[in-house]
């Protein structure tokens, strides 16, 4: 790298350190300590009240802030402290702007005191943001290329639309987080707090680990092709394949998340790869420790009429009738489908068990559960176009293709034509129609007169990913438990079900495999390695049924709690 | 053309004649009779009752059919007769299937008699369809290429989704109509009943003249780039430039039409050009003699939940609250904007007068009217990509580029790349944002606290088009009063205001021009040539506000009626 660039990176890092209060810099455990999850609460920096704050779910937090029991100043300072501690552990932050956040918090406290009214539905809630969402006066240096040193020193002249709406809603944007693949030339590598020798996955990896470590109550990630319901993947991740993908922290940290329908949360004024491509639209969504937090976010954002700012956002407020499952028999006789495997990669034992646990809990609660028959998870649509698409996108941004990423088809280096793209788009349209008909056809099995109300499925075939190469072909198989919903634009939540228990989740033998790749994925499973790792599932609904998807996740949650 | 193809065309035409009842073939006026509008009612074939039926608006027709005062059989036979007469005059039909239609009508009559209930909200309504909407057992030979002889003999195995929904709603599909540009190698040229030496424009030209001649109560046209709110244009019309565009019959025939938001009316199972392109989505919409008919159609189709059949259709039923202008002060203090000209082509005197008449009527009725400031009608977005796009689309289908269409930029013959397409799509996205902000900014002028509720503007700069060349550059200027709303995906109605009156609509001198092209357009205006031609305007709302757009058109209509 040229000396001048190295110098600019050093200056940027110095600025980051300068904005970090020295009094909050506790001595961190040595690098050899891999599991640092417990550290924030034992390091001595946080008092009991601050620990209580961090362990409060978003809905309760909002209540306490709205009635003035807790002040915006206190809660903001509390989360900021913990965010700095978390950052020291896993290098998850990019922009630190504590003065702005505390000034904002003071204003919110004054407003509540003077008027007796909250500023909005997210009054005084701290929000962490993936480093794509521009904030006036701050740099956005971290996307989408692996070498974006040239962006250092470019200060945004206005907020992203979502940031403006969050401000209107009374929220306190307070940090921005590292991506993509949680590694880049400026901020380096974000690690996984569960095992710091592992990467956190991505692309919203910085966001995932920050919220997981309770360094913030609610984070905003983005999703393009789908590592997680709150993690960007495929195209974008492939676009910036900064390192091997060691694990999917976003999947193993037990958060709740929502990949909304693409038109619900505004995507304007952000730094995003592949601008102008409409093939799969990027979406922003919440990541937090409760499904109530997901609901609070979605309700606030959609009621702020984001379509008056971003044309691609649909003219649809949060609909309480739909949340109350008006189109699903008011939730009385729900029938869920479970997809045990997708016909491409059989999931690891703990994931299968999590589905069994969920099925039993739902049946105990009086709901019907049927099997989902997987279709088209092998995705001609991706294999046909992915390599070509990657080559286009990398050549567009002129970035490097990292050596750990294998491009199997080097002939695909030429850009595809608009006509070829239309053929891919036609395949996507056909796939959407096929899935729609497939879903409708389940009406014959439910006994409710409706097709299945939601589908529950793995979020990935494993609770952590192999140390293998991040090759495109492999990736298209890894991510096909999530990316299919991106192609279809179906909203999907992520919710935690259980944790890995080596006694219950022993390696099963014999195990069946679809092919050698599937076998390889299975063979990297080791119960002891992933002991206690949270196991999450997805709940998937149909386009624009975000409200119903949130409500049904609450129902599944309640059933799981009751069955324990 | 090869002999074999000529033979196949002859056979197809013979089949059309075979399905035409000989008893309805009255002797038509000689070709030298140019204006044939009055012919159907004076030819002697139709009795007083049949003439009454044809002159009944859709909403009244539906009432009479629902209560059994008129039978489906009688009304279907009545319209079929008049459709055949119309066809003999202007060659507007492609598929004639009277037996199917009468069998269907008999079933509907039986059903009403036996159950006392209508089959659906469009019970027994005759619907004519542009020859894109497949019907089981019929050929669809007429699109999108100028030479689709090879499609002769291919009988559809299922209905288009819209046809299925129309059947569910109780409608009677009864004829299909000629396109594109209302000329093709099989069915030849459709002419303009106002002046048979002129073409009817297109691409839904067959549909337009059939409904204009009252050969059907409601027709379904399609729209891609926008000659009319119910007429396909730009890409598609350019795709199949079968002849010079002599006139826009769809504009001069005084019908009501709606170009809905692209996701409201399902576009599945149809024959459409450029499958897979999502740049501008094709839409289907109604054309009829009353705004009540437009409402009845939209209400019925969206309440049939088309999103359960076509994934791109939005999950949104007709919303009566929105129709009642809940977001527009319940319609009490509406503020309309008028776009007097678009900054590219100044409209002809009768169009300007129609806006003056509308403004006066609205003000008399107590509404506020402000001026709309035109932006970006010169369309870098089109000029940048259109020539390239045309070349792509023509090379895709392999069709001929007709000699009357000039491609100014022959270097553009190569296909553009996916990346270049994304740049166009980014421009479109930027344009959408710019228009959104522009519309929002009008809030400062309305005095209602809202931005303008709707914009009223010309549908074209003239009541009929010049005999000039159908060159791309010219077309991009002709159609920019409509195509901009396609790019933005704003719903727009067409409604008739007045007719050309040579006394009131004299050529104005001096007249101002933007450029030589504009001057050329003006110079072809001649009050006597277009004497008595209906003059229509558009009423435009914002994406997904179809309900409000229909209601506000009713309001404008009432104001115009009251002012007379």
Account of the protein in words:
The structure is a homodimer of 564-residue chains. Chain A has 20 helices and 13 strands. In chain A, helix 7 links the parallel strand 2 (126-130) and strand 3. By secondary structure, the first copy, chain A, is of the alpha/beta class. Chain A is globular, with a radius of gyration of 22 Å. Chain A folds into 2 domains: 1-318, Amidase signature (AS) domain (Amidase signature (AS) enzymes, Alpha-Beta Complex), CATH 3.90.1300.10; 324-384 and 418-468 and 484-564, Amidase signature (AS) domain (Amidase signature (AS) enzymes), CATH 3.90.1300.10. Helices cover 38% and strands 11% of the residues of chain A. At the A-B interface, helix 14 and helix 15 of A face helix 14 and helix 15 of B.
- Our Rg estimate of chain A from Cα atoms comes to 22 Å
Please describe the biggest sheet of chain A, giving its number of strands, its sense, and whether it closes into a barrel. 11 strands, mixed
Overall SS class of chain A: alpha/beta
Strand order of the largest sheet of chain A: 1-3-2-6-8-7-12-13-11-9-10
Q: How many helices of chain A does DSSP assign?
A: 20
Kindly identify the CATH topology of the largest domain in chain A: Amidase signature (AS) enzymes
- Calculate the terminal CA-CA distance of chain A, rounded to whole Å: 55 Å
CATH architecture of the largest domain in chain A: Alpha-Beta Complex
Could you tell me the mean pLDDT of chain A? 81
Unreliable parts of chain A:
226-252, 380-414, 466-473
Query: How much helicity do the residues of chain A have?
Result: 25-40%
Biggest interface, which chains? A-B, 41 and 42 residues
Estimate nothing, just give the exact number of structural domains of chain A.
Answer: 2
Going by CATH, the homologous superfamily of the largest domain in chain A would be Amidase signature (AS) domain
The count of β-strands of chain A is: 13
Assembly type: homodimer
CATH class membership of the largest domain in chain A: Alpha Beta
Shape of chain A: globular
The fraction of residues in strands of chain A falls at 5-15%
